[in-house]
Amino acid sequence: MAAKNNCKKARREKQRQNMSDSEEMCEDCNKEVSPDDKALVCSLCDNRFHIKCQRVSVADYDFLIKSDDGIQWFCKSCKGASQKVYKMLNLVHKRQDQLESEIKNLSKNVQDCNGNITDLKANLHSVVSGTVKDILDERHEESVRENNLIFVNLIDNGNTSNDKDTLKSILENILGLTDASGQVKITSITRLGKFANTSEKVRPLR
């Protein structure tokens, strides 16, 4: 215990001797810091200050002088700057955490997209085949409808044989729609709607 106290006294005397040899000035009052003055050295700017200029109590001064090198003391100017730096570092750390979270979410979204692309590639053939078939069927239906003729107000007695003869006569004799052999080719005929045995309602003929 005595050896430890002697080491602390020696360190304190050495600090005072160094201050005396270098004739350091107090940064606050611009007066010389003598060996008998109670003064502290800022751990950041390395300048010396009278404790009364920095409003450091004697008890705090004694504690700092007797403490090991792990405890640091900052003057008022450096303390304000260090607090700003500390706040800035906290903001940087928070932003870093946010970026890491965003990157993690982005990575998950990319993995989901890759999975969707894989599924799309697997189903692409069937999807394209079905779409092409639908298009071809629609085009075929359109080409069939291009040759359709609809007639209205033709006598409707419910007999499609009579309808065919009537329609053939109209196409040949009135419209002149014949092929090279002078014939009319009728693929099919249909009455649109349900037959009603009345003269008021006549179904269109296609």
Descriptive report:
The chain has helices spanning 2-22, 58-66, 76-146, 160-174; strands at 39-41, 48-50. Strand 1 (39-41) and strand 2 form a beta hairpin. Among the domains are: 2-77, 2-Layer Sandwich (Herpes Virus-1), CATH 3.30.40; 148-206, no CATH class. The chain has a two-stranded antiparallel sheet with strand order 1-2. The N and C termini lie far apart (120 Å). The chain is mainly alpha-helical and 206 residues long. The model has no long low-confidence stretch (mean pLDDT 76). The chain has four helices and two strands; from the N terminus they run H-E-E-H-H-H. It is rod-shaped and about 135 Å long. This is PHD-type domain-containing protein. It comes from Dreissena polymorpha (Zebra mussel). Pfam families: PHD. GO terms for molecular function: zinc ion binding. InterPro entries: Zinc_finger_PHD-type_CS, Znf_FYVE_PHD, Znf_PHD, Znf_PHD-finger, Znf_RING/FYVE/PHD.
The total count of helices amounts to: 4
Poorly predicted segments: none
Distance between the termini: 120 Å
Average pLDDT metric: 76
The level of helicity is 55-70%
Given this structure, which CATH class of the domain at 2-77 is correct? Alpha Beta
Q: From the 3D coordinates, which CATH architecture of the domain at 2-77 would you assign?
A: 2-Layer Sandwich
CATH superfamily of the domain at 2-77: Zinc/RING finger domain, C3HC4 (zinc finger)
Number of strands: 2
Structural class: mainly alpha
Please describe the topology of this protein.
Layout: H1 2-22, E1 39-41, E2 48-50, H2 58-66, H3 76-146, H4 160-174
InterPro entries: Zinc_finger_PHD-type_CS (IPR019786), Znf_FYVE_PHD (IPR011011), Znf_PHD (IPR001965), Znf_PHD-finger (IPR019787), Znf_RING/FYVE/PHD (IPR013083)
Organism: Dreissena polymorpha (Zebra mussel)
Domain PHD-type: 23-81
